[in-house]
Amino acid sequence: MQKIIKIIKKWKTLYAILVKIYYFIKDNNKLYHFVLKIITIIDRRYDLKSYRVISVKEFCSNNNQEYLMVEKEQPREVCMPIFFGYREGEAIRSAISPEIYIAEIYDSEIIGANSFIIADDYCLYDMAAMDEENRYDLRCESLKYIDENNIALVMSINSKQTIEEAIFLIGFASSNYYHFTVEILSRLKYIDFFEEYRQMPLLIDKVVFDIPQFRELLQTMNKYKHPIIPIQRQQRYKVKKLIFPAYNTWMPINIKDNEDLIHKDFMVANSGIEYVRNTVLKDNITEGDRRIFVSRKNYNNQRLVNEIEVVELFKQYDFEIIYPEDLSFHEQVEIFSRAKYVAGASGAAFTNIIYCPYKTTIVCIIPREYNFCMYSTIGKIVHLNSVYLDARIIKNGRKISVDQFELDLNYCKQFLETL
User: Fold this and answer.
1) Among candidate residues 15, 3, 1, the one with its CA nearest the CA of residue 44
2) What stretch of H or E contains 272?
3) b/e string for 376-398 if b means 16 or more Cβ within 10 A?
4) How far, in Å, CA of 267 to CA of 77, rounded?
5) Is 384 left (phi over 0), alpha (psi -120 to 50) or beta?
6) DSSP H helical ranges for 286-327
7) What's the pTM?
8) Which long-range contacts does 185-189 make (Cβ < 8 Å, 24+ apart)?
């Protein structure tokens, strides 16, 4: 018995080491594939399979499955914000977005916390299909790799469950407030337009139910009281009839290390943002009077390293400090819907600017070199003003989302003096 226990401990140790190695060898394709194979041998729960990547439209066309366009391919405006202290003013740029559609796909598979569909021997993933310049790093959750021949490597656990019919509202980063609000729930706009879908169950990632604010948001957006089917992360389910509303925002989950963000990475459909705002807001306040600073002090990933000093400076200019994680969803909406100024380091809580009164000014602290303009673009859709404050990167992470940066206090004070 003792020998068996020792063997099990050795296997567990090896498995833990392999998982750690996996995160450091993603750019060595052969070694990466080999390590994944070993992991699946050790942990028999996982299946590792490869699929050819195509778009949903191509699959539906080839297989005579229902595909209905609800918004045609069209120009989308992206707002490049003003950075205080720089000569460049606000600029509006344009890029052509893909069409928005609803597809009905039969006898497919879905995987919890993932944004693609498995059907026959294909991985249906529009974001991969539209990456003509090969800029995106699409490895996330169960999608481990896409090679130069457009073959995806997918690792998942077979749940051995079959769902009769449901609407696809799961996806990458559904535990993130921005992604869950803008990329996932806003797509109810296109589903609920059709009466025949209004009573059909929604597939929702189970992680959503672990976060009280997300549960409130889902309950508010689910105005037709769709039944909910929680989906376990990385588990694979068969779905006999799957309703897939296309994505209405086209920001890649990551970009490759040698690439920069560009304006077309921030395209978002007005219809989705406006649907969230109009569904959530009960009273449309025309002018706010509160100055709020959104703190990230209690987050594990604290990007603004001198936030304590920055907060004290904003307090001197009558800003109240809020901690979104301590507030219910409806409390957050109430505060943002009465704001005249919203300031803070870039983060998911800025999604709440969707509920601000028209002409509210958002003050986003972020390094200028990121070229990040999602919140200024959302702000433009709901008629807000945007002013960004440049920050200096002092520590690079694996991705820019985990970089650490610092805001110069004298520069910040100069800006506050202008209010």
Assistant:
1) 15
2) helix 270-280
3) bbbbbbbebbbbbbbbeeeeeee
4) 7
5) beta
6) 307-315
7) 0.90
8) 185/217, 185/218, 185/221, 185/276, 186/248, 186/249, 186/269, 186/272, 186/273, 186/275, 186/276, 187/245, 187/246, 187/247, 187/248, 187/272, 188/221, 188/222, 188/245, 188/275, 189/248, 189/271, 189/272, 189/275
| Interatomic CA distance for residues 392 and 369, integer angstroms | 9
Residues in the chain: 419
Instruction: Name the DSSP letter for residue 287.
Output: -
Per-residue pLDDT tens digits for 208-262: 999 999 999 999 999 999 999 999 999 999 999 999 999 999 999 999 988 999 9
CA–CA separation, 350 and 344 (whole Å): 8
Per-residue pLDDT tens over the stretch 65-76: 999 999 999 999
Please tell me the number of Cα atoms within 13 Å of 330 on its side-chain side: 7
Report the DSSP beta bridge partners of residue 231.
205
DSSP string, 334-348: HHHTTEEEEEEESSG
Question: How is residue 266 written in tokens?
Answer: 């921030």
Q: What six digits make up the tokens of 288?
A: 């706010």
Encoded tokens for 151: 């073959």
